[in-house]
Amino acid sequence: MTFPTFTSTQIDPRARGKELGTLRRRAILANLTGYSDLFAVAGATPAQVRAWGERALERSADWAPHLAEEIAGIAAGAGLEPWQVSVVNARTEILAAIDATGEGECSTSVVLPGSGRPPRTVQTWDWHDHLRDAPMLWELEPRPGHVVRTFTEAGALAKIGVNTAGLGVHFNILRHDSDSADIGVPVHLIARRILDDAATVEEAAGIARSATVSASTVITAVTASGAASIEISPAGVSVIPQGEDGVLQHCNHFLDPALAKGERHATDRPSTYARFQHLRAHTEALSSDDHTTRALAMLSHGPDDAPVCAHPDQTQPINQRWETVATIALDLPAARLRVHQGGPCQVTEATWQTF
C-alpha cells in the first residue's frame, strides 16, 4: 500500500493550484466531506465553518498572498469555492475554535549524530481513521530550481516535508489556553512557507514568528547542522534546540517552560507524556542510520504501554477515533521522504515508499 503522488508542472501559484485541483478533484472533495463530518460531530455549524474558512483565507492573503492565490487555484480546479479549500487548510484552527478534544496524535524523533553524518528522523502521523485516505505526496517548485516534497492531505498546501535547500520539517499538533476562535494564519501554511523559503532553522523560526495564529502546533525544522522544535501558539513562539547529545524529540505537549503553563494536553491527552518517555527510552535505536530500525523503535501500543502506534476504537464517534496513518522519515541529503502507510507495527523493509 502506498500513498498517491502528484508532481506539479506549474510555477505560478494559481496555475499550480488549478492543476492540482483539477487532477486531484475527487480526493479533495472527499477530504472536504470528511472534515465537514468531523466538524459537525465536534459541534460546529455549517455557517460557523464557512465563516472560519473565509476568515482563514483573509488572514492567509494578508500574510502570504501567493499561498492564498494557490488555494484559489485549487478551488477553481476542483470546482469549489476558495473558502472550502481554506477550510481544509485551516482544519487545525477550526478544531481549536470548537475546542475539540481527544486522545491520540503524533510523536517525532530527531537525532543529529555529528561528524558530518546526516540527521536521523522519524515520526508517526496520527489522525482520525475516517480520513485515512486523505494523504498524498506532492512535489512542487515554488520557484525555479527549488524543489519541495511534502506529505500532506488533498487540498492542504503542506505538512511534513523536505526541500532541496537542505531543510526538512516534522509536524505535531499542540493545544494551549490561548487558542481561540479568532482565526489566524493556518499552521499548515506556515509549514509550507518554511519549506518554500527557509534553508536554516533560524529562517524557519523567523517565518513562524511572522504569522499571527489562533491555534498551536510544533514544527520541528531539521538541517544537516542543527534542529529545533518551533513551538507556535497565540501566546508566542518558542524555539527548542537539540540537546548537547544531538537528540530532539517531541510529542503533543509544550517543552518551553513559559508556554507549558498554558498546556492543554496535561488533562485532555495525558498519553503525550508516556509517548515522550518512550522516545527517550529508545533513543539508541532512534539514532540508527536505518529508517526501518528507527520506525520499529517507535513501536508501542496502549493501554499497557505508551500508545505511539495508534489503532482506532470503533465503538467511539469519528472525532474520538485515532489511527497511525503514516510513519515518515526524512532523507535530507537526497531531499526525499521515506513514507510507510500505517503504523510502526506494520513496517518492514519492503513497505517504504520513497518520494
TrEMBL record:
Stored NCBIfam families: C45_proenzyme (NF040521)
This protein's name: Peptidase C45
Domain Peptidase C45 hydrolase: 122-332
Species this chain originates from: Nonomuraea phyllanthi
Stored PANTHER family: BETA-ALANYL-DOPAMINE_CARCININE HYDROLASE (PTHR34180:SF1), PEPTIDASE C45 (PTHR34180)
UniProt cross-references to InterPro entries, sorted A to Z: C45_proenzyme-like, Peptidase_C45, Peptidase_C45_hydrolase
Organism lineage: Bacteria, Bacillati, Actinomycetota, Actinomycetes, Streptosporangiales
Gene3D superfamilies with a match to the protein in the record: 1.10.10.2120, Penicillin V Acylase, Chain A (3.60.60.10)
